[in-house]
Amino acid sequence: MRTLISYITASFVFIATSWNVLGKEIAKDENIYEQRMELYQKAEAVSLIPWYYFAAIDQYERNVRLVRRDLPKATGALGIYIPPERWAGPLNRNKHDTNPFTISQFGGLGMDGNGDGVANPNDDEDVIFAIARYLQTYGTDHEHLKIALWDYYQRSKTVDLILGKVKIYKKYKTLQLDDHAFPLPLHANYTYKNTWGDARGWGGRRIHEGTDIFAHYGVPVRATCYGVVELKGWNKYGGWRVGIRDINNTYHYFAHLNGFASNLREGQIVEPGMIIGSVGSSGYGPPGTAGKFPPHLHYGMYKDNGYTEWSFDPYPHLKMWERAEKMQKKQRG
Ligand SMILES: [Zn+2]
């Protein structure tokens, strides 16, 4: 009995601490969002390029940096990293040049954005100003900005990811888009357990890249995040499936659907809880094949790091979103 009580007490202490941490984190986040928005708007004011282009580039780079070990960690509010040879100019012998004049002589991107006479690659204002000036040399309209992004990143996937974020920020006019929803309505009957990495027989040696959520045919399937529909269609493994890219460069994959929501289309913006289709058993054969296994939603998550994409375990995220949604419901009463 005593152990039980102390266990319960310990859990309460733990819950209280994590809430506290969470509260503080939220406060800090709101402040950082304001700081970032201020920088994007300053860049818009000097370049006439809408703020959401800067927000999208910054958000893309921040998330690449978070998953890459070869890039230094961000120190300011921005996530954009301009490598030394780009900042100083490719032929500049001084890779750490901070003199705006010599940098411009060597065709570097480095700029003095805050007027202190120094082009500092670790200063947020200098960095955003450098990006603004670079984009501006191409023009301020969407088509020219697209070319600017292509020239800068030389990777069409990256350009697509950034332009997806541009659309999302433009629509919602805020940077705070971190809400999530569980893919099935919580009142539906469903079960799932952690099966990530299990061996799969069909179609050669593969591992199970996702979590299977078992439910009845026709249970609504919902978007779990703010994002853009990147893919909608048939695949012999996944059947009818939808892929959604969120603002953190993460791809959310929904497979074996019975069908799609009536006007769902590629390129569409979705938000947490929006119905995108329903649970089914499609897949494991040519288009139309269904019923080879019990109905379930296969949910996968993939991360892009600027070079490539890899699968990671969605199970902890599903648990977290489910818990958060339950808590929200309780609070609303
Ligand atoms: Zn599965």
Structural write-up:
The chain is an alpha+beta fold and 333 residues long. The chain has 2 domains: 2-82 and 121-172, no CATH class; 190-332, Glucose Permease (Domain IIA) (Distorted Sandwich). It has 8 helices and 12 strands. Strands 1, 4, 5, 6, 7, 8, 9, 10, 11 and 12 form a 10-stranded antiparallel β-sheet that branches. Helix 1 packs across helix 2 (51-67). The radius of gyration is 23 Å and the shape is elongated. The structure holds zinc ion.
Overview in brief:
40% of the residues lie in helices and 19% in strands. With 333 residues, it is an alpha+beta fold.
Q: State the order of secondary-structure elements, H for helix, E for strand.
A: HHHHHHHEEEEEEEEEEEEH
Q: Can you identify the CATH class of the largest domain?
A: Mainly Beta
Could you state the CATH homologous superfamily of the largest domain? Answer: Glucose Permease (Domain IIA)
Largest sheet: 10 strands, antiparallel
Q: Which helices and strands, and how do they pair?
A:
Layout: H1 2-47, H2 51-67, H3 84-88, H4 100-105, H5 124-136, H6 142-153, H7 156-172, E1 190-192, E2 199-200, E3 206-207, E4 211-215, E5 220-222, E6 227-235, E7 239-246, E8 250-260, E9 269-270, E10 275-279, E11 296-304, E12 309-312, H8 315-332
Antiparallel strand pairs: 1-4, 2-3, 4-11, 5-10, 6-7, 6-9, 7-8, 8-10, 8-11, 11-12
Helix pairs in contact: 1-2, 1-5, 2-7, 6-7
The protein binds zinc ion (ZN).
Zinc ion binds at residues 208, 210, 212, 298.
